[in-house]
Model the fold of this input.
Amino acid sequence: MTKDKKEQKNAEDQDFTTDNGFAGGDGYSNCDGEACVNMAEDGDTETAGDSSIDEAAVWKDKYMRLSAEYENYRKRTLKEKLDLINTGGEDVVKSMLEVLDDMDRALAAMEKTEDMEAVRQGIILIDDKLRGTLKNKGLCEMQCLGQDIDADLHEAVARIETAEKEMKGKIVDVIQKGYKLKEKIIRYPKVVVGQ
Done:
């Protein structure tokens, strides 16, 4: 550093210390004005000030990078969630296309044939295939006929008188079947309870 630049830097350091309360009495009582000025002239604060500025710049850079990385992670996971929602049923729909094809063939056969027993057998086969496909995907029918009513599992829509005493408080009829997908109930059964 040239002598003029050194004097200018010392003057700036002196202004900084008096403006911010380091020298004088506003800030630190153990630093008198002359000692702080002498430290600035020795160059100790110049290196200490530069290192603290460098350290602050390093921490700011780390913070900015971490913040950008988190924002990128948040956007990526949000996009992945939207993709899962949009294409989540794709596997099930693809497996149902075969059943849909069978249904189209059955409808075409119904128009051409007079043998209704063969049509009935074909529809039974399609129904079995549909139920098998859904079962493979984790769907199962809830069996509730004859069980005790449970408000967490069943939706009671009516009560009827029963001749059998052991059927009181139990499910005597199912209006609409209930289904579970794996362990989650996706449709509660609508049932009639005996009284």
